[in-house]
Amino acid sequence: MSQLPPCPLCGSEYTYEDQQLLICPECAHEWVVDGAVEDEPDAPLKSDAYGNMLQDGDSVTVIKDLKIKGSSTVVKVGTKAKNIRLVEGDHDIDCKIDGIGPMKLKSEFVKKV
């Protein structure tokens, strides 16, 4: 059994490996495994509400009714957004939703399809 390094933020010894990332279950910090090369160093690492890693071009489904600010329209549960783009900021997903148009979503309210 290989020994994984402790979390650099909280020092937890319960880190685990997920593909090329090491993840701390106590503070949710993610970092790259030593020796691994990132494909895009500036690409944001985001996960959906269930912990699945998201990438540009993925399709996601909304898991909660979301009110659109300044409108009476609601994005319903199960609405699909195709070809997402990850961006920095509070609303970290740019996408286009059929029937509504361009939208910014939070990754915590979507599920990868």
From TrEMBL:
All copies of the Protein YjdM C-terminal domain together span 47-113
Q: Which domain of life is it from?
A: Bacteria
A matching Pfam family: YjdM
Give the Protein YjdM N-terminal domain ranges. 3-31
Record-stated family:
Belongs to the YjdM family.
Q: What is this protein called?
A: Zinc ribbon domain-containing protein YjdM
Species of origin: Halomonas piscis
